[in-house]
Amino acid sequence: MTNNTSVFSGVICPSITITKDDGSIDYELWGRHLDHLIEAGINGVLVFGSIGEFYAFPLDVKKQAVDFVVKHVASRINVFAGVGSTNLDDVEDFAKSAEASGVDALVVVSPYYFGPSPAAAKAYFGKVASMTDLPVILYNFPPRTGSDLTPELVAELASEYPTIIGIKDTVDTISHTRKVIRAVREVKPNFSVFSGFDEYYLVNRVSGGSGVICGLTNVEPETFAKLHKAYESGDYATAIEAAERISHLMALYDCADLFISAIKGSVKAKGLPISTLIREPAAQLTDEQYAKIQKILA
Length: 298
Known about the structure:
Strand order of the largest sheet: 1-2-3-4-5-6-7-8
Order of helices and strands: EHEHEHEHEHHEHEHEHHHH
Distance between the termini: 34 Å
Oligomer: single chain
Largest sheet: 8 strands, parallel, barrel
Shape: globular
Number of helices: 12
Helix content: 40-55%
Number of strands: 8
Structural class: alpha/beta
Radius of gyration: 18 Å
CATH topology: TIM Barrel
Mean pLDDT: 96
């Protein structure tokens, strides 16, 4: 069973934000990373998701970075910009800048710290959707935001706002995502539902979903592209082989203090000579952790 009706589908990479050791953005190596993703067959890239450390960069730096990515990608794949913030003025400012740069969609995480009630979340996302003509993808990550976008709430938002066309559901149970798919497809049949966990591609698709937006796509984009292509074509033996490799790679997430360090270390171990620096406050990747990453990848 394939689902090709979603506005966006397939495998989307929430790109790491590649910096130099001094914290400034390394555009040369980031460009090489983006080219690798595209050549491997990824369907889209998200700039400033959680793995992109959206919470840690100044707004002007983020605007410049999004502009760079759009120009570098040059319409070869979709580009999404993560514009979420607890400050609605910043969301609007960033959304307008990203729209001017030419992104294909905005990804908006729930306001965090004070996890909003369903009514507050609905008002927030409604305001964001009204700020822009771009497609808006909701980003549900309850362990980080302190609130959950319920299937009912997602369906209400999809029904009331034409520009809200998808969700990244980063919930470590497929039952939540499956209920979102069922609720939202009744009101908007082409709504895109992505899982935020790497190992959920197959069960997401079997449940009627659109694919994944997940971190290991930075590390082995070829494996994810192979999985997506095989599933789409009905080559389930190849799909299972790719899914088994992804299951093995999930251990990388446990190698560092923060998952972002683990992904940056893994990209470096794969051969791109990047800095593994993550923005403070953070515990940086140690040599011992890097050795563990190398062992898993080998």
